[in-house]
Amino acid sequence: MRTAIWLYLFMFVAFFDLHAQYPILSPFALSLGAAPSFIGLIMGVYSLTHLPGNLLAGFGVDKYGSKAFIVLSLIVAGIILLFQSNVKDPWHLLYIRSISGFVLAFLSPACLSLLARIAKDRIHQSKLMAGNGLVHTLASVVSPAAGAILVAKIGFTTAFSVLGWTLIITGILAIFGVQEKKLLANAMDQSLALDPHNHSLLNQDSDSAANASIPWLFFLIPMALSCSQGILFFELPLMQSARNSIMTSGVFFTVVSLGALCSISFWFLNKISPFIRTVGGSFSLAAIFFGLAINWPIPLTVSLFFIGMAKGIIYPALAALLARITNSNRYGRVFSLLSISYSVGAFFGPLLAGQLRDHLSPYFIAFFVLMLALSLLPLRTFKVPVAT
User: Fold this and answer.
1) CA 71/CA 146 separation, integer angstroms
2) Which of 191, 204, 227, 295 is most buried, taking the most CB atoms under 10 A from its CB?
């Protein structure tokens, strides 16, 4: 349990740093003279360079373990943020963000893989994944407002430096906090103690996990989800009500995260199939974006809260679904595929919004990609063993 807490800490800090930049990155790029279309590219390239990192992380974590990738990812990402604090040109910011995207691509697959491996059984595994969703949400609740306050108090340069040193210190702590080999050995011993015949829940499904597979088109769901979020994160700081106030932008992002925290606190939802939660949450999210596109009468803050609630349902369900049907020796590769899907969508989201916002509502684009992903979902996906 102690190592799980360490992993939650590392992910909290990483997500905190990432989300703290959402309300300040667009204004920072504007202050450097970047056009809205170029800002979309700056935000999108971070996710594009995630792709090679995710691919390497998938095989690297399965072969070499998670600890080295966690430590190096945190420390190097912190150093890059220190360089970002002194950027004076939009193109230099683009280069820095592209490197940062590659480096941090290793962190999430490594942490999720280790969390899944240290579980004693499927129930414990589901709890650990739910804890990961809770940590992610808590970080995203406080970080946008914190990032906005930092910039308002100490400016862009010092704010990025503070975030960078936070990552570096956390990476150093990871060297001592993660005892991976000892932890995995203890997890195996506990599993055998619970079931001397080695028929623990983590092992009894290995044959079915090897045979069951999610169709490739299923990964359009996380891709469309991150695309819609990328559009939202691009658009909110550029809205008229937020353009002249970084604090307003930070509050908008915090409202989204509060909605996610609300839905995650509904523990009874975990009794519902993760596949049904994924599809239902995605459809609800698409409906909200359609409402924003047609300027429905619901206030913006309420709409953002609903978006957060949908996110709080979808993200834990996706991770639980993949962990449920995957053999333990392939966790790294499977979670890297999930991260790749997120990265592709997060790249195209801001890019499309930046190029088309003068001709088409970005929120309609988010609605369209979500509905397209749902309509292309193969019916045979329903045959996947998705019970919690």
Assistant:
1) 25
2) 227
Please identify which residue in the block is written with the tokens 């353009």. 243
| Spatial separation of the C-alpha atoms in residues 334 and 150, rounded to whole Å | 37
What CA–CA distance (Å, rounded) separates 185 from 191?
10
- Alpha-carbon distance of 55 to 250, in angstroms, equals 32
State pLDDT tens for residues 108-129.
778 777 777 776 666 666 667 6
Say how far apart CA 339 and CA 326 lie, in whole Å. 15
Distance from chain centroid for Cα 269: 20
Tokens 């450097």 found at: 32
| 346 touches 28 (CB < 8 A) | no
Roughly how many angstroms between the first and final C-alpha of the chain, as a whole number?
22
Distance, CA of 110 to CA of 64 (rounded, Å): 10
Q: Binning pLDDT at 50, 70 and 90, where does residue 369 land?
A: very high
- 154 token code pair: 């100490």
Output DSSP code: residue 295: T
> Could you tell me if residue 65 is left (phi over 0), alpha (psi between -120 and 50 degrees) or otherwise beta?
left
Report the percentage of the chain scoring pLDDT > 70.
77
179 phi and psi angles, rounded to 5 deg:
-105, 80
Say if residues 141 and 255 touch (Cβ distance below 8 Å).
no
CB 317 within 8 A of CB 278: yes
Biggest CA–CA distance in the chain, Å, is 65
